Amino acid sequence: MPAGAPGMLPPWKVEQIPGGYKVLDANGQSLAYVYGRDARADADTASVLTMDEARRIASNIAKLPVFSAPHE
To answer: Which of 16, 26, 28, 60 is least surrounded by CB atoms within 10 angstroms?
Structure first.
């Protein structure tokens, strides 16, 4: 297996799902789910993210570096 965290092979990508986004590794393994609400008022009422905020967070997660040093 290549260096790095098992099951977290780069590149990571973001895919829209109902109610949010998920971050996938190169093998299609889901790494993170980020949910939001379409309307700002709905998001504020529920104290959750908007869909735009969820998209930006998922995108930033997908840009995180994968550690190349083997785990000890």
So the answer is: 28
In which region does residue 19 sit, left (phi positive, over 0), alpha (psi from -120 to 50) or beta (all else)?
left
- Does residue 67 sit within a domain? no
The answer to whether residue 50 is domain-embedded is: yes
Is residue 8 assigned to a domain?
Answer: no
Q: What does the pLDDT look like over 21-63, one tens digit per residue?
A: 999 999 999 999 999 999 999 999 999 999 999 999 999 999 9
Range of the domain at 33: 13-62
Buried b (16+ CB within 10 A) or exposed e, 10-38: eebebeeeeebbbbbbeeeeebeebebbe
Closest CA to 48 of 18, 20, 23: 20
Position 56 in a domain: yes
